[in-house]
Amino acid sequence: MRNEPERVDWVRCIPFLILHLGCIGVIWTGASAVAVWTAVALYFARMFAVTGIHHRYFSHKTYSTSRAGQFLLALFGGTAVQRGALWWAYHHRHHHQHSDEPEDAHSPHVHGFWWSHVGWITSRRNFPTDYSQVRDLTKYPELVFLNRFDAIVPIAFAFAVFGFGKLLEIHAPGLHTSGWQMLVWGFFISTTLLFHGTSCINSMAHLMGRRRYKTEDDSRNSLLLAFITLGEGWHNNHHRYQSSTRNGFYWWEVDITYYTLRALSWTGFIWGLKAVPKSVLAEGELSDHHSSVAAARRAALVHPEYASLRRVVPAAAAIAVATMNAAHGTAPLPAPVHPQSSQVADKSPVAETGR
After folding, report:
1. Same domain membership, residue 92 and residue 63
2. Which helix (H) or strand (E) holds 165?
3. What pLDDT digit, counting tens, does each position of 125-137 carry?
4. How far is CA 145 from the centre of its chain?
5. What is the DSSP string of 307-345?
6. Residues 223 and 313 in one domain
7. d(Cα 298, Cα 318) in Å, to the nearest integer?
8. Residue 255 placed within a domain
9. Considering the domain boundaries, does residue 350 fall inside one?
């Protein structure tokens, strides 16, 4: 199948279409506060399943866990309804090998925005899993089973969401929800938003944002995408060094997936979180410095009327330092006396009178 041309396989699109059409059910079920907040909670919980499990564990093995823990992670990842863990890991590893090249299945530079966002998963060519590329995972038959029968967990999850709504309908009628309403909000709407949130990395993280590292592709860092995807928006960082557990390399780069994994490591369920090498951090800091200098130069050219600030700011800084010294009672150091200065002083009228 990998040798087939890129084209939509409409039969493969049926589950995807059902997922989106299910959102229309809100017309009949309506909304309630508990249903909406459940949808929000399940969006972020399962976004972590995508970013922290499918991506940072199965695709890159940035931390370790037990075999039983690995199976539980795969089960939780299945609730995201984004195929099996091995399929996800294979396609992501393939993306890194051919990023923004013709072989990249979802490069917006090669295939356009919409194909990279949604079209590529409708192609028959991208449906199978190349198990030869995930040999480290295929040695676990339980993972292969979940990957081959990847509809089991999503269907079970949908029934669980429906059952949760039904229980609330019976035992907490004051919440004004029902099984069908919870299914529409907690499964169909939440899962659809989850898909498009994840897909923003494929379609937008190579188009919007800034580039700290000069990678061979056009990956970029975006704070907005980092919020939507719990830290995956630091895409240029990730393409520079894939083996780190954190994508937000610096403290100011929000990475909720990493914070959650760090907290999970305190329980002993996972361990061996991999750090960013100091050399990579130093490279990024140097690049940020050069970018700041270049931006200042461009600003001076575009707005020459602000060039005087380059003279004003140092003077203001000197005044601020002098003020701080005065506030703390720090006297300025006396100026050094040079021999020539002494000779000049001896020739002054006062010196002559003293003789």
Report:
1. yes
2. helix 152-171
3. 899 999 999 999 9
4. 29
5. TTHHHHHHHHHHHHHHHHHHHTTPPPPPPPPPHHHHHHH
6. no
7. 26
8. yes
9. no
Written in H, E and C, the secondary structure of 180-193 is HHHHHHHHHHHHHH
Low-confidence ranges of the chain (pLDDT < 70): 1-5, 291-355
Return d(Cα 85, Cα 146) in angstroms, integer. 8
Bridge partners of 271, per DSSP, are 64
The answer to whether residue 219 is domain-embedded is: yes
| Domain count along the chain | 2
Query: What single DSSP character describes residue 102?
Result: T
Other C-beta atoms lying within 10 Å of the C-beta of residue 349: 7
pTM of the full structure: 0.81
Residue linked to tokens 């990956």: 219
Domain containing residue 19: 14-276
Same domain for 151 and 201, yes or no, is: yes
Angle of helix 14-21 relative to helix 190-204, nearest 10 degrees, comes to 120
Q: Are 77 and 47 in contact (CB under 8 A)?
A: no
Contact 5, 146 (CB under 8 A): no
In one-letter notation, the amino acid at residue 187 is F
Q: HSE (CB half, 13 Å, CA atoms) of 219?
A: 26
